[in-house]
Design brief:
Length: 176
C-alpha cells in the first residue's frame, strides 16, 4: 500500500507542477514563463566596478555608459542556477534581459531549440549580448534567408537564485 501511495503522490505533484507551469504561461503570455540560467554568459565574476572596467569598451560601442548600465535590470548579471521568470512584452528596450530561441545554425555550439538569456544592447537593429561574453550575438546574420531569432519569448521580470540547478544539471547531462 505504501508504494502505491508514494507513486500517487509523485504523479499528483507532477500534474500540479505542469498545471502551474501552463497557468503561468497563460498569465505571462509566453511559452517559456520560467527558465533557468545554464551557462555563465550573463555572470559577473568580479564586483561591478571591476567588471565595468573590463567591459566598458564593448558597451561603449552601443552608446551604453556606466550610468546607463547601473539603471538596467540585473545590472549585477545572472548566474548559473538562477531561475528566471519571463513575461511577453512588446516594449523591449536597451538594457532589458530577454529570453529567445535562435534559428538553428546561427550560433556555434548552441543546440537546436536552445533558450538564450541575454541583454539587449541595441534595439535598431536588435542586438543582444551576454554580459560575460566578449562579443554581441550575431542576430542580424541570416541563415537560409531567415533571421537568427526564431522567437522572442519575452523579458526577464524576476529571478530566484539557485533554484534552477536541477535543470542546469539535466542540461549538462542530456542537453535539455
Amino acid at each position: 500500500m505504501g508504494m502505491k501511495k508514494e507513486l500517487a503522490e509523485v504523479a499528483l505533484a507532477v500534474i500540479v507542477a505542469l498545471a502551474a507551469y501552463q497557468t503561468a504561461a497563460l498569465l505571462l503570455g509566453t511559452n517559456v514563463p520560467v527558465t533557468s540560467v545554464v551557462t555563465g554568459s550573463m555572470e559577473h565574476s568580479v564586483d561591478f566596478d571591476q567588471w565595468w572596467s573590463m567591459s566598458e569598451t564593448e558597451y561603449s560601442k552601443f552608446n551604453i555608459t556606466r550610468e546607463d548600465f547601473l539603471s538596467f535590470p540585473y545590472k549585477k548579471g545572472l548566474y548559473v542556477g538562477d531561475i528566471v521568470v519571463v513575461k511577453k512584452s512588446d516594449g523591449i528596450k536597451k538594457g532589458d534581459v530577454i529570453v529567445y530561441h535562435p534559428y538553428e545554425g546561427c550560433f556555434d555550439n548552441v543546440p537546436p531549440k536552445a533558450t538564450i538569456i541575454h541583454r539587449v544592447v541595441s534595439t535598431n537593429p536588435l542586438v543582444t549580448k551576454g554580459d560575460n561574453n566578449d562579443n554581441p550575438d550575431t542576430l542580424n546574420r541570416r541563415i537560409d534567408g531567415k533571421s537568427c531569432i526564431l522567437s522572442i519569448e519575452g523579458k526577464a521580470i524576476a529571478t530566484l537564485p539557485l533554484l534552477g540547478y536541477p535543470r542546469t544539471i539535466l542540461f549538462k547531462i542530456i542537453g535539455i
